[in-house]
Amino acid sequence: MLRIPYKIQSMSETLFLFQKLLKRTEDSIIVSSEPIFDSIAERYDSWYRKPIGRYADEVEWNCIKGLLPSKKGRILDLGCGTGLYTERLMKMGFDVVSLDYSMEMLRVAKGKMDSEFIRGDAMSLPFRDSVFDGIVAVTSFEFFPDPKGAIEEMRRVVKNGGFIVVGVLSRPNLWSWSRRKKELYSSAHFYTYFEMRELFRPEKIVACLYAHPKAKRLGFWKRMEPILSKIFPFFGAFIAILSKVEK
Fold it and tell me: What angle do CA 120, 80, 177 make, to 5 degrees?
């Protein structure tokens, strides 16, 4: 049990204790998520057609887009799913290679656009060293069973001076509590602000998505996003980082 002292001496001590309270045990069981994603591939995009889905998608995309250090080069969309970010990155001018472990997700993505889609494992990327200018991984890192191993693989395939942008569903917030009830997230680890900072030692880290999962007044929440992001960075439902690769 974590004992909290009667008097906390500093802000750094407060943050340390907060991180300890949120830390997940290392012996948690990892369940393969491939069958789950295969089973929902056809209806996966339907959530983005709902008002709250469109809102969350817009907020998260703006968060990711603001971290991209360039608008050209060959990049890997890691855990591309149905190709939502592949399409956007292509429109920005990137040469995109997209990888996912779910064959059904890739099949849906291939039906939407003409791009290079590859089935592969994030823990053993099927590429030679230093082949990409950057990597974008959005809502996929949460499902990787070995985060440090995945980061090593990402750094391996990115050129010296390149970048890694990762966006994850985070905790603690109302979104993470509601998502835990869904089978889709049974094998996911929702990262805290502190965990992402510790894992990546990023150049930049930002949080967003503060609206309630069932919020109706989305215009109000959109105006509040930049304010809440500055005041409560630890409680955004989406966290994104930019990490530069130096070899």
Answer: 110
Q: Count of domains in the chain?
A: 1
Cis, peptide link before residue 126, omega less than 30° from 0: no
Instruction: State which residues of the chain have pLDDT below 70.
Output: 1-35, 181, 183
Name the DSSP class of 93: T
Residue with the two structure tokens 């502190």? 194
d(CA 164, CA 166): 6
pTM of the model: 0.83
Contacts of 232 (CB under 8 A, 6+ apart): 207, 210
With left for phi above 0 and alpha for psi between -120 and 50, is residue 130 left, alpha or beta? left
Structure tokens that stand for 227 in this block:
């304010």
8 A C-beta contact, residue 24 and residue 88: no
The residue segments making up the domain with residue 134 are 31-244
CA-nearest of 167, 85, 154, 81 to 122 is 154
C-alpha span between 201 and 31 (Å, rounded):
27
User: Is residue 125 in some structural domain?
Assistant: yes
